[in-house]
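Severity: low
Component: inverse-folding endpoint
Summary: output formatting inconsistent between runs
Steps to reproduce: submit the following structure tokens with default settings.
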């Protein structure tokens, strides 16, 4: 017998077979490499006793002029501010382009049942609400005999549960009614700005389209005059529907969508759609052949490219992206843009507690983003950011005509005048301007680089650099076939950008580089690339890591991660990569330790219920926990309890090398000697054995071995052609860092 010593190379290799990955680890979970040695990752602890309603999609940390630290958190429903251990709801109200808040006054309420809490609210005009929208009720008086109190509704938030008609919707009340009341009372309905779905879906037909998703090249406009619940057209008479502008709509045998009604037509005359059929494809008012009532200026969608309403659209035509935010800073002012929506600001410089009772708005004093004549921000933009040195607000994938959402061009860029957050019309006296990119179909993301702005389409990378008058910014394509997978799938550290593309991992340090990746095939075969907008990338500079969290095939939300350790890249030509699947460690957002001393991250649980903001009758929105990373050894939950942070690691399948070759003889192992650089508590070590590479590994006799800090050696009695080393921990308080594998081993015959 001789002492066999094996030093494994850092990182995980999943490109090769378990036998072929010589001197490598082949699997890991909650393990990182530091100075070439593997160790369990650091723990994390909840920053709050509260949890967040919905799934967080963006974090942004910033500091005001007085040194106060904040984190803005954008979810699929809300915009929140974290400040000194408390969450504040600053979600903007729904508003028009001029900044006027959307309100439905003199609305009425009906109690639908005495066995359920469902209530129906009727508005005086088309509410345009969708299932899942959040509303606030104000100035509430209730009809008599309901048994409910106005305080059950006053100044409380509700989720829209259903939308029976364009002027009715249902909510759950705080308490159950004592009797059924058909209608009455009075109240004001104040909708929150709609962000978007919790998850990205792809390839749907019915129900996705324009009232929840996007159809490639869709045209929209507004009704020029109300439509009655009738079989006729405008105003309830005639055979046509009038639009403000019919430009861009299908000119013959088309279909439009207004609220939830489909209307087919045969032709276009000026701005009139002629020879109409109301309530097409079964969308008439329930129990009738009539159409639905629609208010003047209701949004009209060209739905002609549906093959048939109720049949699935071609999967390449429909993508329903999740609700996303762009968050950046104009000095101490937060700039927040809803993806494909409006831009809002929130001024942290407001004195005292008033800043936390003030919502993000397009009317923020001195930082207005609403449209007023020649001033104001676009109303439909994929994302925004602020140039760090020149202080231009940049809109990517935005409107060619400001204020007209139907002119949104996914490849079009607008930038404001310098130091003017709401001036976008180019003149001879300012530095505002526009640019349309060419390579790709849509802008996917943008970040601030070392000396420029980097902008990705779904196929290419562009550099946007300040050049001064008269062009302000110069645009240069610096890469192709390197498109970005999702808005949040890119990060930058020390002047280098790292991102996840459609076909691999890339970096940019002045030149686009394809990152050689030892887990690439595993990740991309496992990854549901149709959910690229859910990818959350982060930097952990404490350990020189770039992390991507992603959803695997069949998963609704992120459930896997992959890490590139740029600090360890000199150890191997392919760099140091590792992966993980542990549910507790999967994140939807991440910010590095720059403003705060440790990274902050969010974890989502779709089956739990969040507490902030408080939603009456909330169902199905899920729960986000806000964590501080790299603290302790375990997970500390909002209620103060501890969840053990488990980890695992497995080596390649090794054999004894003889003059007859590798694997010619069985391996006989008598004992192994544990070698841990650090060890707290215990770890479980398993010697796995197999006879042939295709066999499943089985635990050797006497395995598993519980290794303590005082352990010196373990008898193994292991025998097989191939063997592997597995390290795990299962309990709270355990921590470890591994060194060198040493085992008494010899060749032991061919059978």
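Observed output (run 2 of 3):
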């Amino acid at each position: 017998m001789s002492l066999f010593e094996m030093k494994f190379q850092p990182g995980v290799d999943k490109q090769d077979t378990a036998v072929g990955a010589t001197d490598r680890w082949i699997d890991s979970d909650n393990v990182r490499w530091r100075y070439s040695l593997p160790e369990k990752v650091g723990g994390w602890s909840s920053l709050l006793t509260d949890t967040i309603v919905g799934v967080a999609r963006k974090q942004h940390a910033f500091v005001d002029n007085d040194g106060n630290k904040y984190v803005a958190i954008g979810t699929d429903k809300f915009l929140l501010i974290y400040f000194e251990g408390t969450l504040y709801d600053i979600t903007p109200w729904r508003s028009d382009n001029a900044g006027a808040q959307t309100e439905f006054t003199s609305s009425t309420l009906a109690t639908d049942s005495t066995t359920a809490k469902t209530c129906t609210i009727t508005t005086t005009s088309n509410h345009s609400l969708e299932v899942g929208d959040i509303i606030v009720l104000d100035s509430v008086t209730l009809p008599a005999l309901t048994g409910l109190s106005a305080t059950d509704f006053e100044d409380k938030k509700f989720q829209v549960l259903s939308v029976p008609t364009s002027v009715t919707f249902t909510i759950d009340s705080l308490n159950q009614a004592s009797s059924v009341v058909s209608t009455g009372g009075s109240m004001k309905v104040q909708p929150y700005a709609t962000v978007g779905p919790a998850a990205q879906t792809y390839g749907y037909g019915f129900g996705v389209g324009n009232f929840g998703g996007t159809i490639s090249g869709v045209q929209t406009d507004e009704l020029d005059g109300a439509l009655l619940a009738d079989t006729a057209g405008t105003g309830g008479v005639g055979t046509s529907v009038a639009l403000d502008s019919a430009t861009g709509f299908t000119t013959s045998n088309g279909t439009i969508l207004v609220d939830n009604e489909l209307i087919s037509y045969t032709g276009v005359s000026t701005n009139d759609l002629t020879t109409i059929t109301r309530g097409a494809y079964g969308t008439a008012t329930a129990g009738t052949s009539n159409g639905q009532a629609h208010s003047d200026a209701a949004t009209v969608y060209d739905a002609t490219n549906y093959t048939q309403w109720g049949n699935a659209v071609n999967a390449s035509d429909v993508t329903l992206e999740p609700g996303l935010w762009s968050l950046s800073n104009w000095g101490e002012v937060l700039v927040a843009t809803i993806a494909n929506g409006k831009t809002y600001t929130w001024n942290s410089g407001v004195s005292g507690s008033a800043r936390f009772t003030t919502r993000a708005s397009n009317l923020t004093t001195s930082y207005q983003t609403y449209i007023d004549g020649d001033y104001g921000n676009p109303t439909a933009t994929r994302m925004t950011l602020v140039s760090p040195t020149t202080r231009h607000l940049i809109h990517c994938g935005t409107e060619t005509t400001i204020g007209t959402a139907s002119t949104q061009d996914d490849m079009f860029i607008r930038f404001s005048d310098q130091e003017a957050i709401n001036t976008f019309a180019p003149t001879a006296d300012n530095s505002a301007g526009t640019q349309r990119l060419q390579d790709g179909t849509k802008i996917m993301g943008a970040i601030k680089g070392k000396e420029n702005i980097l902008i990705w389409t779904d196929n290419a990378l562009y550099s946007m650099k300040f050049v001064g008058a008269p062009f302000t910014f110069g645009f240069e394509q610096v890469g192709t076939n390197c498109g970005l997978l999702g808005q949040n799938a890119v990060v930058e550290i020390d002047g280098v950008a790292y991102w996840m593309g459609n076909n691999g991992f890339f970096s940019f340090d002045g030149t686009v580089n394809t990152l050689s990746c030892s887990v690439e095939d595993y990740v991309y075969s496992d990854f549901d690339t149709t959910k690229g907008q859910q990818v959350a990338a982060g930097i952990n500079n404490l350990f020189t890591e770039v992390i991507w969290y992603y959803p695997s095939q069949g998963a609704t939300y992120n459930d896997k991660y992959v890490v590139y350790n740029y600090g360890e890249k000199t150890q191997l030509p392919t760099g140091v990569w590792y992966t993980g699947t542990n549910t507790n460690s999967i994140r939807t957002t991440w910010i590095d330790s720059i403003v705060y001393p440790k990274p902050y991250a969010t974890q989502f649980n779709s089956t739990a219920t969040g507490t902030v903001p408080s939603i009456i009758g909330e169902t199905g929105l899920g729960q986000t926990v806000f964590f501080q990373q790299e603290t302790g050894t375990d997970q500390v939950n909002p209620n103060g309890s501890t969840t053990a942070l488990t980890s695992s690691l497995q080596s390649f399948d090794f054999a004894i090398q003889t003059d007859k070759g590798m694997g010619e003889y069985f391996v006989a192992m008598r004992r192994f000697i544990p070698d841990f650089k650090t060890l707290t508590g215990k770890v479980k070590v398993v010697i796995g054995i197999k006879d042939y590479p295709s066999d499943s590994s089985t635990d050797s006799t006497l395995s598993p071995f519980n290794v303590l800090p005082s352990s010196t050696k373990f008898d193994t009695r292991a025998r097989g052609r191939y063997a592997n080393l597995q390290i795990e921990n299962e309990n709270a308080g355990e921590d470890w860092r591994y060194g060198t594998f040493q085992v008494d081993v010899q060749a032991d015959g061919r059978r």
